[in-house]
Design brief:
This is Glucose 1-dehydrogenase. Strand 5, helix 5 and strand 6 form a beta-alpha-beta unit. Helix 3 runs parallel beside helix 4. This protein has one domain: Rossmann fold. It is an alpha/beta fold. The protein binds nicotinamide-adenine-dinucleotide (NAD). The site of nicotinamide-adenine-dinucleotide has 30 residues, from helix 1, strand 2, helix 4 and helix 6.
Amino acid sequence: MFELTGKQAVVTGGGSGIGRAIAQLFARQGAAVHIIERTLAAGQATADEIAQAGGTAQVHAADVGQQAAVQAAFAAIGRVDILVNNAGIAHVGTVENTPEADFDRVYQVNVKGAYNCLFAAVPRMREQGGGTILNLASIAAHVGLADRFAYSMSKGAIHAMTLSVARDYLSSHIRCNSISPARVHTPFVDGFIAGNYPGQEAAVFDKLSRSQPIGRMGQPTEIAALALYLCSDEAGFITGCDYPIDGGFIKLNT
Ligand SMILES: NC(=O)c1ccc[n+]([C@@H]2O[C@H](COP(=O)([O-])OP(=O)(O)OC[C@H]3O[C@@H](n4cnc5c(N)ncnc54)[C@H](O)[C@@H]3O)[C@@H](O)[C@H]2O)c1
């Protein structure tokens, strides 16, 4: 079950956190993994870990927000059986304290970055006779989170793009789904706590842990396990779906 042998998988943002865990697990299951990373050293570190464990991985330095760079990376990769649109950035703020430059930056990475990879991957998958796409949304796409205006915008767009692509490419045998994690303990979370709540790191970490009814943050490996299922042939009947993976955040926070 959940074998990816013989498949080429592209994981964006595979140098850290959830993307790193997905790249490692997919490689362990036999995929040839291609990491598209803005931070080359981080992507290379993941690729080296994969190689040391006996897997196959290659890094392509690119900012997913730049279409020419993304096209060049996909041209170098060739066949794409699996695309995981994972690269993303955080932002804290209401509409009033989200200046245009911040809004544009979040859009550029989280929305346009996913679009650029879809734009590059979908024609290849169509010509190959199929493929599977997994987009990283968030609980922010589904519930009103305080102080997450631009981030919520971007993850709502991810959810909508997931449905659109799933609908348009049914007959091309391209499945497209998204997953919506609540808090997962990654450098992304540590970075935004440090950047936005200096001096209150431990208290904010504890508060964010308790905001999941299950009482803790998720682990990147737990997100990777769901990603593996959704990208495997065993999930062949699933398309156009979003899966919360949230310690009860959406349904049990009463
Ligand atoms: N961690 C959470 O709590 C959480 C919750 C819900 C959704 N998510 C989503 O999961 C995804 C991964 O989050 P994470 O916590 O692992 O983040 P992370 O910051 O640990 O890792 C993100 C990786 O993406 C790379 N990256 C960022 N911008 C890029 C760009 N423009 N081009 C190429 N690479 C780029 C970074 O260099 C980094 O290696 C994001 O889309 C995030 O929105 C995270």
